[in-house]
UniProtKB/TrEMBL annotation:
Taxonomic source organism: Paenibacillus anaericanus
MF (Gene Ontology): antiporter activity; xenobiotic transmembrane transporter activity
Compartments where found: Cell membrane
Primary location: membrane
Keyword vocabulary terms for this entry: Cell membrane, Membrane, Transmembrane, Transmembrane helix, Transport
Membrane topology field: Multi-pass membrane protein
This protein's record includes keyword DNA-binding: no
Protein name per UniProt: MATE family efflux transporter
Any Pfam family the entry gives: MatE
GO CC annotations, alphabetized: plasma membrane
Amino acid sequence: MNNKLNEDRKFTLWVLAWPVFIELFLQFLLGTVDTLMVSRISDHAVAVVGFSNQLFNALTTLFATVASGAGIVIAQKIGSRREEEARTVAIIAFKVTAVIGLVLSVILIMLPRPIAEILQLPEELLPLAEVYISIVGGGMILTAIMSTLGTAIRNTGNTKGPMYTAVGMNIIHIVMNYCFIFGAFGFPQWGLTGVAISTVISRLIACIVLMFIFLGTFERRIGLKDFSLFDRKLFKEVLVIGWPLGINSASWVFSQLAIFSFLAILGSTELAARTYMNTLESFCFLLGFSLALASQIQIAHLYGAGKTREAYSSVYRMLRVGLPLVIVNAFILVLFGRHVLGLFTQDHEILSLCASLLWLNLLLQPGKMVNMAIGNALNAVGDTRFTMNISLIFMWVVATGCSYLLGVSLGWGIVAIYVCMISDEYIRAVLSYFRWKDRKYLRLREEDMSRNNSSQLTTEVVHSC
């Protein structure tokens, strides 16, 4: 009884959300410091980092298919009291994503410049991009391992472990950045090359720490021989949930990468402005995103336990808190964003562009919050094909296609591109809301639980006779 109570407490929204929020908030602060440091090299360096990160985000979707699907299955299995199966799923996901990460690392080490050229990066940025992509991209296997281990640990209800690890990793990264950019404490002044090296080293340390946590995260400790485990049926469960998640995620990051390519066509000023805005926009939905992620874990756990009514209402309780926070944060950025941007760059053209984008961000963030929260809820109960389908349609037709048509072809620039992104978020938010309200997958779970209970009752009656 006590174990059940302790487990239920582990999966309350607040207990899950606050470590995720602290992790993301400190990452945001340290990421801001990171961008500030890189801006001391040049605005070109900032543009290269922003562009490269979009490329890396796009490539992570290749292993996010497995990692994200595994995370939801792990939470569902724990909710239904099948921890051994959850443990096996975590081990399988680790092995598969590590192999995918290794393949990506080799490709990025060998072909950094051709990849940047295909994605229309301006000629003056190619030398910096070649160095940064080859070094940071070469550590893609570390990103794959971090993603999978962090997701697995977090979906068992332990959100503190990944939080402490991420904070430590970012502190190490910032200290090393300071040493390599400014040549402090006798270190060589390597500029953007040093930033890339510090990124890889800090991620390596994080992988080691997460592995130690991962080995002891389930009731039965994971040993070396357990890494030979493979269960086709469980892996199929992961893929059934995971492949639409992967395509959904790929749709978003590749559409963002396409939009970054459009901005590169417009010029390095627009590219740098979008990179700075990405940093500021992260501030808007930190707590909201933390609540949405925690809500996904909680809903998957409740769904696995058959508590469908609690699962249904959970997302609305979260939105009542998250949505006002996002709106307030976006308005704060409108008031003070230009002053903050002055810490990163003194380029008047970039600052003027960002001043206009801050107002558009006030419209963007509420739609993004609702879309993210209800989309995560749908994913948690396994309704991943719906979120995939609307992403494929509206991200590419509205956000990407209209961005090129209005922003590049008609020459209306980055403001038109933002309007297209806003439209996409609101359309998908409305569609997701009506899908969640329909309760399709929750009703299927209720029917499944009813059949199981009837079958169990019949068995008990037969045995008693």
